[in-house]
Amino acid sequence: MTDRRTRTALFFDSGIGGLSVLREGRVLMPDWRFVYVADDAAFPYGAWEEDALRAHITDLFSVLLEEYRPALSVIACNTASTLAIDHLREVYPDETFVGTVPAIKPAAERTRSGLVSVLATPGTVKRQYTRELIRQYAQKCHVRLVGSDNLASMAETYMRGTMIDEEALRREIEPCFREEDGRRTDIVVLACTHYPFLVNRFRKMAPWPVDWIDTSEAIARRAKSLADGIETLPGKPDDPDLAVFTSGFPVPELCRLMQGFGLTPTTLQGE
To answer: Is 255 an active-site residue?
Structure first.
């Protein structure tokens, strides 16, 4: 007899930026329960050495998979996906993982000027996975990789309801914009799930209009397509949707934010 799981989808990020993907997932998968895991105890991932971060994520998933028994896990983080998702699939071969990668292919297909920028964390910029995507899909474009040390933290601050320095924000996105032989950058890929929450600020501070590509909906569609093929118990589980924080119970402003997304804040019990 098949050991069918409940319709529980786990969304994982280093902080709260992955809520941009979860928001889309809930629209497409209304009959599923959601567990959002913010590994805020380890935030930001860019400060970690690669081997140590891969081991940390893999060990953490041993706890998460046992605790919540998801039928599907979405790694809603470019850095974690490009670094660890292949390893997660090897270590947990019976689990279904959905990754997040920079949207270089659609950017290359859509650009008219041939000048594309990828706005990411330093970890995603230096990853060989990212460069391989450029080699495969964007050889006819000039792709500029822009690694920001500060934008993810700025997005976290902004999402918690605190205003951010717009001049500092402008400095972070300025390298994305280049002019060459009468052409201008016309597409910026948002290669961090935190960044869509700042995109309206980006538009305001940009020196000229560009197409900002957010992959949140595409990731959610991929999760939905895989979810449809997983044998699960019928009906949505009775347990509430959760927001799990690895650092402990969240502060009041984070609790309010999570509740606004329909999530009940909690902490990880199984570590």
So the answer is: no
